Amino acid sequence: MSAREDILSRIRKNRPAGSHELPPLPHFAIQGGEQKLETFSRMLKAMGGQLVRSDSIPSVQAWIREQFPGAKVVCSAVPEVPGDRPLSQVRQPQDLADVDIGVVRAVLGVAESGSVLFTEAELKVNTLAYLSQHLVVLLHADAIVEGLQQAYENPAFRTAHYAVYHTGPSASADIEGVLFHGAQGVRSLTVIVDQ
Amino acid sequence: MSGTNSTTEYASRVLHPEVIGDHFEGARDAEGHPLVHAEGTSKPIRERSTHEPQPRGARDRGNRPVDQVEASERFLAATEHEKAHDERLWDMRLRRDKVAHALPEWEDMRSLASQIKEHSLTHLDRYLEQFEAAAKANGVTVHWAADGAEHNRIVHDILKSRNARTLIKSKSMLTDECGFRAYMAGVGIEVVETDLGERIQQLDHEEPSHIIGPAIHKTRADVAEVFARTLGSDPDDDDILHLAHVQRETTRPLILKADAGMTGCNFAVAETGTVVVCTNEGNADLSANTPPLHIASIGIEKIIPRFEHLAVFLRLLARNAIGTPMTQYTSHFRAPRVGGELHYVIVDNGRSERLGLKEFWTSLKCIRCGACMNTCPVYRRSGGLSYGATYPGPIGIILDPTINRRKYSSLPFSSTLNGSCTNVCPVRINIHEQIFAWRKVMSEEHRLPFVKAEMMKVLGYVLARPALYRAALESADEALRLLPHFIVANPLNTWTDKGRDMPETPTQTFHSWWRQNRGRARNTP
């Protein structure tokens, strides 16, 4: 018997008694959900990210140059920022290993957790969000939803090959609980919100 | 959840003031406040001037029962390690409480999560078939492995047929359970763990000691020693940020040149064939997105029916594990990326047999958050490696005997049965009742002297030190939450005073079990 049939038949034989119906899911209101941007901002900060309002800066491009004066390679997946590493010319994921700043637009933001969502459609090359040293994320304030329940209603989850929530930058505290950013992925994550 | 508040709030709840440092070395927000997320601690652990050698885990006794108590004694003797470990795990427990209590629907969410898992497990054949069909339609290649050996062979075959010699992977308890790294070393495939804690453990040839903090038992000096020995870093530099930098810089070239990537799976969504992986470092995403080939190892119990159920589990998982609303990265893999390959290996390894154990099948609900370890007084003060098993702590005690009943026969006695594990379980597994039920199984399968000896060993070790708990805790109420009433109230008379009032459950079952078995011993010819 194949492993598949073997496993499935053992599962059928050993099925625990009882009906065990699937419970209906109630809607849970998110605390602070009505002030989505404020809640998003607070949670993002607590998770190690930072939030910048687009009306407080001259342009994303200028802000990047000011914040990261030493950055040599800016790779942008958004039309608002030209960048100097066109993603259309990237042949393989490893080609982004020398990127200092990656720029991408989020599908949505989650107020409850301060998360932003991307799929391969936004990233163009998935490693943009991991091999870059710093990640700059553009987000429309209107695209912030209250919580995860609302976020999972987004059709992208059913069509995208890859979808990922980022909640702050790469982090670890695996040595004595001392928290640091940039364990393997990006060292910082900034969300620039336009309203 | 900014660190400053939690620091002040929890300052009075320190267990071991002598190991608390006076300054935060970790990340801060833009205003300079210490941040507390990921596995970060809200109380800094003090730097030490001398290096106490790391106590090692349970000795390998082959198939003979693990001597957890012997390893615990050595862990306790290494006082710096033991106190820092206890302190840090308790801090995670407090951070969990804080965020859990902030959600009014918390208890409802636990019930929902439990019901969804029980439904999925009792309809597992149907959901696995649905998951497989959806995955295949998405272009994923699906494999089935009856046990760990078959899992390892399947992965090796995939790698061989593509000439892959190097594999980067994210942390997966399932691959640890399968002995994956040892197998791959034997067939000449280079495996590189990309999670910092798991990498430390791999370089030190040690198993992970905690489900989410593999190197949580090590001090910075231990890590400096491991990195100096294996990565050539400065043995006298135990600055944590330097150590983290060494790991990042030495692992990245291996990530860039790897032929294949591997991840585990936190949740497998039946309706879409999606695999969800949670990490704080983004290392699963690097492992899956950088090389052309991604293999995901999936335990059959990871299945949930629909996408909407993820909202329930993800809201519980990171809050319960580390006290944050989400892990830094929550990744959904549904189909191979353009030009890449995606393989799923669906693994049983004893799970379908466990499903048939009337008293124990609900242990399959576990979502591997680690909270039962953080709260367990035995685990916190004996270290995960003392269990000598892939899964340590309370959940390990009830999973391990289904993997090897003889080898792990003594583990069910490494518990005070205080019920704290059950109280914090996000999917409402009755962990302490199952520990008790395993004791009954062991007492039926073993000679009573073995059972009695194991009971006395672990109780002796807990009872000998109740003062440590009491002194450490802020109030008697907290001591009562941590220790069973019969230990706190009357440590020595417990075993002889048959006439006294029965304490509250769960101690009642424990007590009556003891009386019942002692009675049986008398009747045994």
Describe this entry's structure for a reader:
The complex is a heterodimer of chains A (195) and B (525). Chain A is an alpha/beta fold and 195 residues long. Chain A has helices at residues 3-13, 36-46, 60-67, 120-123, 128-131, 148-151, 156-159, and strands at 50-53, 74-76, 101-105, 108-110, 115-119, 134-140, 144-145, 162-166, 171-172, 180-181, 188-194. The longest helix of chain A is centred in the N-terminal third of the chain and has 11 residues, at 3-13. Chain B has 525 residues and is an alpha/beta fold. Chain B is built from 24 helices and ten strands. In chain B, the strands form two sheets. In chain B, strands 1-10-7-4-2-3 form a six-stranded parallel beta sheet, sandwiched between helices. In chain B, strands 8-5-6-9 form a four-stranded mixed beta sheet. In chain B, helix 4 (106-122) packs across helix 13 (308-322) and helix 10 packs across helix 11. Chain B is globular and about 60 Å long. Classes of the chains: A alpha/beta (195), B alpha/beta (525). Chains A and B meet through helix 1, helix 2, helix 5, helix 6 and strand 8 of A and helix 3, helix 4, helix 5, helix 9 and helix 11 of B. Strand 8 (162-166) of chain A pairs antiparallel with strand 9 of chain B.
